[in-house]
Amino acid sequence: MAFCINCGQMQADGTKFCRFCGGQQPGDQLIARLRMEAEAIRYQMQQMQAQQMQTQQMRQANYGQQQDQGQRW
């Protein structure tokens, strides 16, 4: 499914004109390219989130070690 670039209503794939507003829709090649770009962005976002989680876990582990060392004194 795709969305109209003019009014935002949901459209079936391959639709040439929006059935709600009559606006011309992008061709199949453009839609395929945009979907590939969106998937690449989604992948990058997932990688960044995983990296942030790793960094946060490392900081928490380091903080815990510092707390343990402080209690020994």
Could you walk me through the main structural features you see in this protein, from its secondary elements to its overall organization?
By secondary structure, the protein is mainly alpha-helical. The protein has a domain at 2-52. It has one helix and two strands; from the N terminus they run ββα. Strands 1-2 form a two-stranded antiparallel ribbon. Strand 1 (2-3) and strand 2 form a beta hairpin. The radius of gyration is 24 Å and the shape is rod-shaped. 3% of the residues are buried. The mean pLDDT is 88.
Summarize this entry quickly:
62% of the residues lie in helices and 5% in strands. The protein is mainly α and 73 residues long.
